[in-house]
Design brief:
The complex is a heterodimer. By secondary structure, chain A is an alpha+beta fold. Chain A has four domains: 2-157, 2-Layer Sandwich (Alpha-Beta Plaits); 166-268, Alpha-Beta Plaits; 273-335 and 357-506, Beta Polymerase, domain 2 (2-Layer Sandwich); 514-543, no CATH class. In chain A, 30% of the residues lie in helices and 15% in strands. In chain A, strand 10 and strand 11 form a beta hairpin. By secondary structure, chain B is mainly alpha-helical. Chain B has a single domain, classed as Cytochrome-c3 Hydrogenase, chain B. Chain B is 48% helix and 12% strand. Chain B has 15 helices and six strands. Chain B has a three-stranded antiparallel β-sheet. In chain B, a hairpin with a 2-residue loop joins strand 4 (296-304) and strand 5. Classes of the chains: A alpha+beta, B mainly alpha. Chains A and B meet through strand 12, strand 13 and helix 15 of A and helix 1, helix 3, strand 4, strand 5 and strand 6 of B.
Chain lengths: 543, 366
């Protein structure tokens, strides 16, 4: 099938649509659309309305689809053409060489093929120029498999699909929501191409030869590719962490077992800085939990006193045994042991020790918050009240509203990371100030990693930025905060800088000890790693 | 035809009136501010993280670089915070010298504020007058510790050295003429018609809102609340000093101007008292060579020129670094009130409001 003649009827509105579809044939001037001289046998460039000159033979079939599309795109429908079924122009070279009779004796198939191609390309929308019986069971993509047709004797079209029993992927497309994780490209590099913003279906495997997400048009895959790559595509689809890879399968899909992909883990959990494998980042994780507490202090003191007592008892026992031994041997008795006095402190420094809560404010609050107070103590002249996270809002409301407390201002709010702690990860402290009574109080809550805390903004509006800062620096979320976004770091910052596992040195080039890297191998690896993270590092010039 | 539509503009981050890299996103209806969103973080250096990895002695150097126009105040907050954490008793003479230098620093900070704030509003001359006196105080700092801005003036436990010879004379010479200088600024501004029109009733903030938003310092005192940490929780030698807390009832830009001028006079008074009553004795406490902390948690706040400057420390057993250090920066908290002060007002008042809050972006972003 081919288009022999094209012409423009009167009424062109110079809209350029046809030139956009088929620039080889149409040329839109200021007044009308012309058929290009290059594409015509007579070489004239005009509307071709009266003379109806033929197109050049080699263009008749190759530009057919484009001309049909242009005609369909014309808003005033002035592009007319003459379409004929031609045999010799369409026969692929390979086919005619191998078995010329096949193509000649099977013009119907060829016509079907063309129709199928049209259908596949979506261009034969409303151009029933040649009456062709639509053959539904023939998959459209079979059409461009000339070797298959050539190898077979001429048979009815339905018999042409013995291979249809073999399952294959007819279509594959990417739904919205790609997170650009590269997992699919790792599984099936021939089909997927992950760009900076989304994943594309590669042009090489597609019928229309375009590289897009294939979401809207849902174009088919080349059948042989669809058959060959079926396993890898299903693997990629199952491995996608956000399940946006969709496909249509013809026949029974094979069972594909998918191992969890590395990229899935990265996408699922929070970003963790790998301080074990990057020792140069100089992260030393704390081993202790320096959470000031009266209870812990008393336990420590008791243990130290017991150890001291045991040491003294041992010294005395040693002395007794030595004395009896000396008496039996008739020697002089050894000197009795002297108990060591506590070290004398001649510095102007005395470490403040925590003591029982005696302050009336603390006692009053412990009464009010019956059972929600974990502990209350005084140290360095400061009052600390540790409450259960459930009782936090209640505590703050009492502190602000109670007539005998009147802590009007939330002076400061901050958090501390305790990675070595058992049962909690952060302490959040609220420094309250009573302006009218010149008094300060610290309210402390312990939260687990990932646990949400109730926001204090409704009670103390000054908590707004401080909670944003805590979220920015520690990743603690506050429930009911009006605008919980990062405040100091950029909004796309990875990680939470004031957590203890966050390195003080950067990533990329600084992971390398350059004294050890004479050959530059480590440098190249770091560049690659940084590139994978989306960081563009420039190679420093050698001197 | 006229068309009305809200417009969104950015003030800053590089704008001379934002005193640093502050960006303010403004939604305007004509010239009226509908919504104001301060956006910060352009100068964030992670001082808290850095100080967690420095010893208690090294960390003080970083406090110079937060509020860089009031570094002596920051040094005092750090030194006293660490002393509270360790339980160190500082000699009385050191307290007096610290108080004196901190008050001189308050004067420099207020002078810088006065000059730049007046410059923003359109009074050029005051800037030159204010910097003339500021330069003199910076020379006093230079005589004391060798640096004009990044002073690191104090040590944990006291001072590195006693005041140098001739220092007292230098300070007294400055003190002798400074009150007249304040009168000069007042002649230029206090009854100036333009100044009053640009400041009276502008950027209002009442005491209730200020306390709710955590605003402290001269901005709170200009709203009528006499909250001054030097009086409420005396530290250094302030308990022995005789001075008044300057307050004004109005809560507008003009009131804040009056409060800061009065604070300079009171600072002058305190410096004089420190010089007159300077006790004899050592300036450094007796300390072990290596300071190792016990498990303790403290919050120590001082009255910096901008407001309540708090240091929060957590020490671990045997630690030479703070386990956690947090700065409660007055500029950071005070800047929260900007939206409240300018919404519904004119665009030109935003400039006055940023100036009157007296924020230093090094301290806001830390």
């Amino acid at each position: 099938m081919a288009i022999t003649k094209v012409w423009i009827e009167e009424g062109c509105i110079v809209c350029n649509a046809c030139e956009a579809e088929c620039p080889d044939v149409f040329h839109v001037t200021e007044e009308s659309c012309h058929i290009k001289g290059d594409s015509r046998k007579d070489g004239h460039e005009n509307e071709n309305r009266d003379e109806k000159g033929e197109l050049k033979a080699d263009l008749q079939s190759s530009l057919e689809a484009a001309i049909v599309a242009a005609a369909a795109a014309c808003p005033v429908e002035v592009i007319k053409y003459e379409q004929v079924a031609s045999v010799e122009a369409q026969t692929p070279a390979a086919v005619s060489e191998a078995e010329p009779t096949v193509s000649q004796t099977a013009p119907v198939i060829d016509a079907d093929i063309d129709h199928a191609v049209d259908a596949a390309l979506g261009t034969a929308l409303n151009v029933p120029a040649v009456p062709v019986a639509p053959i539904a069971p023939l998959p459209p993509v079979l059409a461009i498999v000339p070797p298959v047709i050539a190898a077979k004797p001429p048979v009815p079209p339905t018999a042409l699909i013995p291979d249809a029993a073999k399952p294959r992927i007819a279509k594959v497309w990417i739904e919205e929501g790609c997170i650009v994780c590269n997992a699919c490209e790792a599984d099936s590099p021939e089909v997927f191409h992950v760009t900076e913003t989304t994943c594309m279906i590669k042009a090489a495997v597609r019928l229309d030869g375009k590289e897009t997400e294939n979401r809207v048009e849902k174009n088919g895959l080349k059948p042989e590719e669809g058959e060959r790559l079926i396993t890898s595509i299903i693997t990629a689809s199952k491995g996608c962490p956000v399940d946006v890879i969709k496909y249509e399968v013809l026949g029974d899909a094979p069972l594909v077992e998918v191992k969890p992909h590395d990229a899935v883990e990265v996408a699922a959990g929070p970003y963790i800085f790998d301080y074990v494998t990057a020792p140069n980042r100089q992260v030393v994780m704390p081993k202790t939990v320096p959470l000031p507490s009266l209870h812990t202090y008393q336990e420590e003191q008791k243990a130290a006193a017991a150890a001291d007592e045991a040491k003294w008892a041992k010294q005395q026992a040693d002395f007794e045994s030595a004395k009896t031994k000396a008496v039996t041997e008739g020697k002089d008795a050894p000197k009795p042991p002297v108990r060591a006095l506590p070290k004398k402190n001649d510095n102007d420094m005395e470490s403040p020790a925590p003591s029982e809560a005696k302050d009336p404010d603390l006692l009053h609050l412990m009464d009010l918050l019956d059972g929600k107070v974990s502990q209350a103590f005084e140290q360095s002249g400061e009052l600390t009240l540790q409450v259960h996270p459930d009782g936090l809002v209640e505590t703050l409301m009492f502190c602000k509203g109670d007539a005998s407390l009147r802590y009007e201002m939330l002076a400061d709010q901050t958090a501390t990371h305790y990675p070595a702690a058992d049962g909690f990860a952060f302490s959040v402290v609220y420094q309250l100030t009573s302006i009218s009574r010149s008094k300060r109080l610290r309210v402390r809550v312990l939260v687990k990693d990932g646990q949400e805390l109730e926001s204090a903004v409704q009670i103390y509006p000054s908590a707004n930025w401080m909670e944003r800062e805590i979220y920015d620096m520690f990743g603690i979320r506050f429930n009911g905060h009006p605008d919980l976004t990062r405040i100091l770091c950029p909004e796309d910052w990875e990680g939470y800088p004031l957590r203890k596992e966050y390195p003080t040195l950067g990533w990329g080039q600084r992971d390398i000890d350059f004294r050890e890297d004479r050959s530059g191998v480590l440098m190249r690896m770091a560049m690659e790693k940084a590139g994978n993270m989306g960081i563009n590092l420039k190679v420093p010039k050698a001197d | 035809m006229f068309k009305t539509e809200e417009m969104e503009i950015n003030l800053g981050p590089q704008h001379p009136s934002t005193h640093g890299v502050l960006r303010v996103k403004l939604h305007l209806d004509g010239e009226t501010v509908v919504r104001c969103v301060p956006m910060i973080g352009y100068l964030h250096r992670g001082v808290e993280k850095i100080c967690e990895n420095k010893t208690f002695f090294q960390g003080q150097v970083w406090t110079d670089r937060t509020d860089y126009v009031a570094s002596v105040s920051n040094n005092l907050g750090w030194a006293e915070g660490v002393e509270k954490l360790f339980g160190i008793t500082v000699p009385r003479r050191a307290h007096y010298i610290r108080t004196m230098l901190t008050e001189l620093n308050r004067i420099t900070s207020h002078l810088l504020w006065l000059g730049t704030h007046a410059l923003d509003i359109g009074a050029m001359t005051v800037f030159l007058y204010a910097f003339r006196e500021r330069e003199e105080i910076l020379s006093i700092f230079e005589a004391f510790c060798g640096a004009r801005l990044t002073t690191t003036a104090f040590r944990i436990g006291g001072l590195r050295e006693d005041i140098p010879p001739g220092f007292e004379k230098q300070v007294r010479a400055f003190q002798a003429r400074f009150l007249d200088c304040i009168d000069e600024y007042e002649i230029l501004l206090t009854e100036n018609r333009i100044w009053k029109k640009r400041t009276i009733g502008v950027a209002m903030l009442n005491a209730e809102d200020a306390i709710a938003l955590g605003v402290t310092g001269p901005v709170l005192r200009a709203a009528g609340s006499a909250y001054d940490i030097r009086k409420a929780f005396p530290y250094a030698a302030y308990g022995e000093m005789d001075f008044d807390v300057a307050t004004q009832p109005a809560g507008d830009t003009y009131a804040r101007y009056l409060v800061r001028l009065e604070e300079m006079r009171q600072a002058h008074r305190i410096v004089n008292q420190c010089l007159d009553g300077l006790p004899e004795g050592p300036v450094m406490a007796k300390l072990p060579k290596v300071l190792k902390s016990e498990v303790n948690e403290i919050y120590h706040a001082i009255e910096a020129p901008k407001g309540e400057l708090g240091y929060y420390f957590i020490g671990e057993k045997g630690g030479v670094n703070p386990y956690r250090m947090h700065i409660r920066a007055p500029s950071f908290i005070n800047l929260q009130a900007l939206s409240k002060m300018v919404e519904g007002r004119l665009l030109a008042d935003v400039i006055a409001a940023i100036g009157t809050l007296d924020v230093v972006l090094g301290e806001v972003d830390r």
